[in-house]
Write the structure tokens for this entry.
Amino acid sequence: MALTRRTTLLAGTALGGAALLAGCADGARPDPMSAERSAAAERVRKQAARDSTALLARYDATLAAHPRLAARLRPLRAEVARHAEAFSSDAPSAAASASAPAAGSAHGADAPRVPDDEPGARSALAKAERSLADARAAALVSAPPELARLLASVAAAGAAHAYLLAQAG
């Protein structure tokens, strides 16, 4: 059989198609390491959502105990609510429930303890913000890039909140 230009082109096209199909088939196989990374990222995300929700409860308890701090705390609380929403897998319902303190939400057995004096209450919130910012910074190493960026941003906001809460007056 004589090697013609048409035969060569047909053979090249067939080989290219076979290589393309083989490449697609290889990509369809589940990667166990990818599944583990995805599960780890989901655990980090869920923990971050729980942490933001707990911090939100601390803000609500502080606002209930010290209503005179409302002007200072409400903007920070609103940011924490947005953080909880960002980490939540069910963002629309989290946005609705986290946007404003629920009436009586800071009362009950599960409410965080709030110091009786306003400076102590602000200090306790600052400590909680700082601790959570540090935990989020530590979680960066196990998070995929997009989640790591979110964690870093929220950790920076938490550090700023801690600074603002620690300021007198």
Summary: Residues 37-166 form one domain. Residues 13-26, 90-98, 102-107 have pLDDT under 50 and may be disordered.
